[in-house]
Specification:
Elements lengths: L7 E6 L8 E5 L5 E7 L4 E6 L1 E2 L4 E2 L5 E5 L2 E5 L6 E3 L15 E2 L1 E4 L2 E5 L18 E5 L3 H13 L5 E6 L5 E2 L4 H6 L4 H4 E3 L1 H6 L3 E4 L3 E5 L4 E4 L4 E3 L2 E4 L3 E3 L12 E2 L4 H13 L2 E5 L3 H12 L3 E5 L12 H13 L3 E3 L4 E6 L3 E6 L4 E3 L2 E4 L3 E3 L2 H5 L8 E3 L10 E3 L4 E3 L8 H14 L13 E3 L7 E5 L7 E8 L4 E8 L2 E8 L5 H10 L14 H8 L1
Parallel strand pairs: 13-14, 13-21, 14-17, 21-33, 23-30, 24-25, 24-30, 25-26, 32-34
Antiparallel strand pairs: 1-12, 2-3, 3-4, 4-10, 5-6, 7-8, 8-9, 11-12, 15-16, 18-19, 19-20, 22-31, 27-28, 28-29, 35-36, 36-39, 37-38, 38-39
Helix pairs in contact: 1-9
The structure holds flavin-adenine dinucleotide.
Flavin-adenine dinucleotide binds next to helix 1, strand 14, helix 2 and helix 9.
Length: 532
């Protein structure tokens, strides 16, 4: 029987390939080949460019060498070695890339169109679903999972690990639960049954303590180990606990999770005095909640005004007096020196020598991305775990979403931008990924019932900015819009925050507001009705 004629594809001049390096070329519309030229033999090898271990087209960028007498290329991602003549992976017999015949004729490099038959990789039949592991069942991770299940309900075999001993709850609403405005039941988003109904294996209260990127495995604190094809890290943030003397005393807590909230509620039942260190959003919500639970609360804040990163002096003053009217003591320009007590906290001493009685101390002095796990796995981290515009870390199998992430140099501490993380990541995992995350700006709303405060954008004034201000002292309303070149740069609203989200959109979209500038402060309905 006659063998069919070989079909050769003319790729390039031999001199186009620098000796001892690789280049990538297209064999046809769908196939990339990696070509490697060895200087001492003047020989060229061709194998598929797609690295099956990482799922990325990268082999042409690998380093060539000699392993156990075999010419190989090391994948730049996982360092698996592939034989240049057979395409087999030296470390994992299940992995293989196609290898092609190459000839050099009249200085041109020709590659045979069909891969070598005897050695052609037989793609493994997908008998099992790929395995997706999610670490962290907080707001961002679980939103990503919801989006993914909507886009591709049956694509993955899914396993979820959560460090906290319960299903997913709405962390934002811990404040209204603390103040008694909502019940615990109101804030549960996904209970154990939710996971079960979707055949998701859920490990509550079992933290992942190690990622073995080489074996594609995660190891939990319990010792349980599982394998992933795709891994999503959504480990959130951790509260910054200032290392003051007395920080480890009983009765000193952060305000981050359900456990912290229970500590606060239990203390409120038994004790009288609470001190909250930090007069930002979280500290004030804790103070309000504890005050509503009957405690005598003092807020200690280092700066000259409350919520100094979100409010200007006037709005901050209004907020201060509203909180003071509710019986909360505010100490500005106050720095904590130490926390006093024997086994349980009894007071807090300030640097000016003043001592404030305290049976409970809530430290609300900021958060930082929780990246210890990612760092220990050698993933590139700066302030947060660094991801690209498709929420992929430097390891292409590993994605990340939420507050643990650093995207284009930015880390986030509010939930709105995280929905974008979740959607982009889910669409990648659903193999529909064409959208990219571009970053987002943040708006803040304080959740203290009866006190409406909103802030968004940049409040800094300069010679290029103008302020539009409404001040209605009797009704307790203050609104300030900072304009720059007929665009809203920032907004602070106190007392009437109904148009907050509209201003927020105008800031984000950099909308030219000249058509309704004189009505802007009166809100969306009035402004747009008259403008149209
Ligand atoms: C009291 C409070 C009020 C807030 N109010 C607002 C608000 O009004 N508006 C707003 O926009 N934002 C608010 N936030 C912030 C908002 O809650 C966060 O932006 C959001 O929860 C971040 O989501 P995340 O999924 O990144 O992290 P998280 O929701 O913190 O979830 C991360 C989860 O990962 C788990 N985890 C960590 N490490 C591991 C591990 N190794 N293994 C397994 N699991 C792990 C953690 O236990 C946690 O459950 C508030 C936060 C708090 C605490």
């Amino acid at each position: 029987m006659n063998e069919p004629q070989n079909e050769w594809i003319d790729i390039c001049q031999l001199s186009d390939i620098v000796p001892d390096t690789g280049v990538c070329a297209l064999l046809d519309e769908n196939r990339q080949v990696a070509l490697f030229r060895l200087s001492h033999q003047d020989r060229v090898y061709a194998i598929g460019n797609h690295d099956p271990a990482s799922g990325a087209n990268v082999l042409s960028r690998g380093i060539i060498g000699d392993l156990q007498g075999e010419r190989v290329v090391a994948s730049p991602i996982y360092k698996h070695h592939y034989s240049l003549s057979t395409g087999r992976c030296l470390e994992n017999p299940d992995l293989m890339v196609p290898a092609y015949q190459v000839q050099v004729s009249d200085g041109r490099v020709l590659v045979e169109k069909t891969a070598k038959k005897s050695l052609m990789a037989t793609p493994k039949l997908r008998t099992e679903k790929p395995r997706l592991v999610l670490v962290g069942n907080g707001l961002a991770g679980m939103r990503m999972l919801e989006d993914l299940l909507e886009m591709a309900p049956d694509l993955y075999d899914i396993e979820v690990f959560g460090a906290e001993p319960h299903g997913n709850y709405n962390r934002i609403l811990l404040s209204p639960v603390l103040s008694g405005d909502k019940s615990l039941h109101d804030i549960i988003l996904h209970d154990a049954a939710w996971y079960q109904e979707r055949h998701i294996r859920f490990h509550a209260g079992d933290s992942i303590v190690r990622i073995d990127r080489h074996r594609h495995q995660v190891v939990a604190a319990s010792g349980y180990t599982t394998t992933y094809n795709r891994l999503v890290l959504a480990t959130g943030s951790e509260p910054i606990m200032i290392p003051l003397e007395g920080i480890n005393l009983e009765g000193v807590t952060a305000f981050r999770n359900l456990g912290d909230m229970n500590t606060m509620l239990t203390a409120a039942k038994q004790y009288t005095n609470a001190v909250v260190i930090g007069g930002g959003l979280l500290g004030l919500e804790a103070a309000h909640g504890l005050s509503r639970q009957g405690m005598k609360v003092t807020v200690i804040h280092l700066m000259d005004r409350l919520m100094d990163r979100q409010l200007d002096q006037e709005a901050a003053n209004m907020l201060r007096s509203a909180l003071e009217q509710r019986g909360i003591t505010i100490r500005l320009h106050a720095e904590t020196e130490k926390i006093l007590g024997n086994s349980r906290v009894t007071s807090v001493r300030l640097k000016d020598g003043c001592e404030i009685p305290a049976d409970l101390v809530v430290m609300a002095t900021g958060i930082r991305p929780n990246i210890a796990l990612a760092q220990s796995a050698g993933l590139h981290c700066e302030r947060g775990l660094v991801v690209n515009d498709i929420m992929q870390t430097f390891d292409p199998r590993i994605f990340a979403v939420g507050e643990c992430v650093q995207h284009r140099g930015v880390t986030y501490g509010l939930v709105e931008p995280l929905w974008g993380h979740a959607f982009v990541c889910a669409s990648q995992l659903a193999e529909r990924g064409s959208i990219r995350y571009q970053g987002a700006h943040m708006a803040t709303q304080l959740k203290v019932s009866g006190i409406d405060v909103f802030s968004a954008g940049d409040l800094k004034s300069s010679q290029d900015t103008d302020d539009l201000i409404v001040r209605d002292t009797k009704r307790g309303i203050y609104k300030r819009l900072i304009l720059n070149n007929n665009r809203i740069q920032g907004a602070v609203l106190y007392g009437d925050t109904r148009d907050g989200s509209w201003y927020s959109e105008l800031i984000q979209d950099k909308t030219d507001i000249s058509a309704y500038r004189n009505r802007l402060l009166f809100g969306q309905d009035f402004s747009l009705k008259r403008a149209s």
